[in-house]
Amino acid sequence: MNQPIIDTSPKVSDEVRKTTCYMCACRCGINVHMKDGKVAYIEGNRDHPVNKGVLCAKGSAGIMQVNAPSRLRAPLRRVGPRGSGQFQEISWAEALDTASDWLTRIRKTDPSKLAFFTGRDQSQSFTSFWAQAFGTPNYAAHGGFCSVNMATAGIYTMGGAFWEFGQPDWDRTKLFVLFGVAEDHDSNPIKIGIGKLKARGARIVGVNPIRSGYNAVADDWLGITPGTDGLLILSLVHCLMAAGRIDLDYLARYTNAPLLIDDATGLILRDPDDRPLVIDRATGALVPFDQMGVRPDLNAHHPGHRTVLQLMAERYLQPEYAPEAVAERCGIPALRIRALADEIARVAFDQAITLDRPWTDFRGEKHDRMLGRPVAFHAMRGISAHSNGFQTCRALHVLQILIGSVEVPGGFRFKPPYPKPVEAHPVPHCKSQPDHPLDGPHLGFVRGPEHLALREDGSPARIDKAFTWENPMSAHGLMHMVISNAHAGDPYRIDTLFLYMANMSWNSSMNTRGVIEMLTDLDENGDYVIPRIIYSDAYSSEMVAYADLILPDTTYLERHDCISLLDRPICEAGAAADAIRWPVIQPDRDVRGFQTVLIELANLMELPGFVRKDGSAIYRDYADYIVNHQRKPGIGPLSGYRGNGDQTGRGAPNADQLDRYIRNGGFHVTHIPGNAEFYKPWNVAYQEWAVGMGFYDKPMPYLFQLYVEPMRKFQRAAEGHGERQPPDHLRDQLRRVMEPLPIWYPPFEDGNVDPKEYPLHALTQRPMAMYHSWGTQNAWLRQIHGQNPLYVSHKVWQQHGFAEGDWARVSSVHGAITVPVALHGGLNPDTVWTWNAIGKRKGAWALSEDAPEATKGFLLNHLIHELQPARGDGLRWSNSDPITGQAAWFDLRVKIERVEPQTECDPHFDAIASPVGRGPKYLIWKVGQ
């Protein structure tokens, strides 16, 4: 028979260009296959340390981002009212002149009149450097509404946290416990890791109100009541301490558990050189904690003092933390809580592992092996985005430490450049003066009230009120409060709001309709209350319509980017790694990379650090900055191929550096020596390696902080001690929440609304195939998630008589939405949830007005306010964690009622005009012949 001739192996490409993905924050390595100079196909790079060739739907769909009809095409100046979407295309010269004119006038008079905030970008070490040079105190990125509780709690407790700070020891872990983890963060490495665990028969336990993704493949699932994770964790601590199943040797050697706390002040006993003191178990003498040969006594007795471990036992062995006391509130039976505690103890202690690797600790003691506790934890936004999130995250870090499973074989391992103690980080700076740079970095870690960002009169120095008595330890700022504070003129008015990749008029704001009104509100003179808005994005998002000047960004395959050890690195626990993006294709539009635009603006304004004394530019563009910028001598954005190309970590700039990265696949990796891979905070070999890499200037061994003394200092201020005093209305809150040992308190919204009227918790999750808002305009990814129902439990489904195809009205104290509902079998019975950022505003993203995302997609944001419900005290409190200011997205309480099916979700918003128009019905293009 005659068979047709079919080419079963068609030529995929004529060239492969290796770079870094930008479809989520994983930053995987990708091979971009090119045909005739165009992108034909994207696959994972098998040599890359992050994903090892694995690529998710988002990464593969990156080709649709660089061909998206929603891409902005040229700089734009608003010509109609804000929100109308009426713009005029202008040249880059006019756009830069306009922006530099606005900004220069601010800088010469009052730099604090600029609020510069960036969303989900990955160049924060650079944007913060720019903002510091400009001189405004008002800079931060998106962390304040993402996961600052997790990161900050981790830094203060143990020098790092999950995800970018560390990872489980996937090759040795025998029990993996996840708290509040959705599928959008670090998805490919976690999928690879879970695959390893499953192959070895290790156990996985998921603690989450929603069973999806990772929790769906867990061996056991605990459908916890939202906001009670901290209570569950402290109950586990209770069980472990009551059973004596804690690692006493680890606690004595490597934590502040044996430190002596003054009963009168709550402060740590120190010597004249400010070194914490312990009682040596062998001699009974009072000695510095780090003295050679010392054996700290966990049960020491010293007049008027108790050890940290004694304080912990006194608190956590109380019956209020017993499983039987917390079970009903957590929604988990007491027997299951005890079973989890037993399993953690059994694996940690009865299945302990050892590695025959000699190492030397910071006290000079030599060890002939490394002891491992093969229990690893992982957590993310689910436990972080609550008003009690900081203390909950602290509790989880303390739980890990109590069983000795941090930075040991089988447990949680830090990724370079972490671990870093609080002392290795800057404190926040806020001194702003005309025509000068800021006096230091904007963000950092306070050690006490003396580091708050306050003006001389005690008022907040920052527009978001970060680092104030309202939220003293707000290490990432409060991006969700910028617009409402600026609109209210509280603490002061601003002139220009400058945003990058921050969709603040839609899915990145609480109180979406209210924020839109704030952005368009006029004062008594008919001028906008927020006078000027500059916005940069690659796409025609909802926020574009509300800006006065648009600086169009490139897509990620058209620009240089730097995934830096100075910023948000891609390291693995056993290696330091960084990476670049580079223009594998050239833009076909009149757009420029935002980082290069900032350099062009800095050069026009002659900002310090960007121009020489004669006014000439130090950097041509961002690529030039990546290669030649030095944060300190020998330390730059990239750690690889420095000096003559053979130096790593420290070394002079190398003009060939970017080309070397490109030839190596877009990344550089250097492995930690075997004897330095574990016990990093205390291991002399690691500390010396870290100094050579430039992470520290000198070794910085430190103790894990079960008891966080800076928190006690804020408590003492609230009690009336010290020169800096909080306002009276905040004293009670500070005394209550700034406990130096982890506590649990109910989420604030639980206490501010009637639980009988609003009996349900409402949550959002990001699906694995979407990331923030830009994925839902992607033609491939839209086929996976084109709309989003509200998922309800069997209990709610039956109570309200729901059937397939039904709709519901969902109400909070702030507002109401009308949406389709669907039954979800793996759900806490008193919880409803939906996917986040699927819903789109009509007219945005080049989507048609009848697109499912605009008609059957919705946001829970309409139900959430940036302020808590009124308490009756005449004040309106931020809907945030009172310690860090993290947005409490997941405290939302709602009620639900069945309604007749609708044709569209409510609320409705008028379609906004788009500067890019509408995309074609079908995206069709041909690459190659």
TrEMBL record:
GO terms for molecular function: 4 iron, 4 sulfur cluster binding; metal ion binding; molybdopterin cofactor binding; oxidoreductase activity. InterPro entries: Asp_de-COase-like_dom_sf, MoPterin_dinucl-bd_dom, Mopterin_OxRdtase, Mopterin_OxRdtase_4Fe-4S_dom. It is found in: Cell envelope. One of its GO terms (cellular component) is cell envelope. Residues 14-70 form the 4Fe-4S Mo/W bis-MGD-type domain. The keyword Oxidoreductase applies. It holds the Pfam family Molybdop_Fe4S4. Its cofactor is [4Fe-4S] cluster. This is Molybdopterin-dependent oxidoreductase.
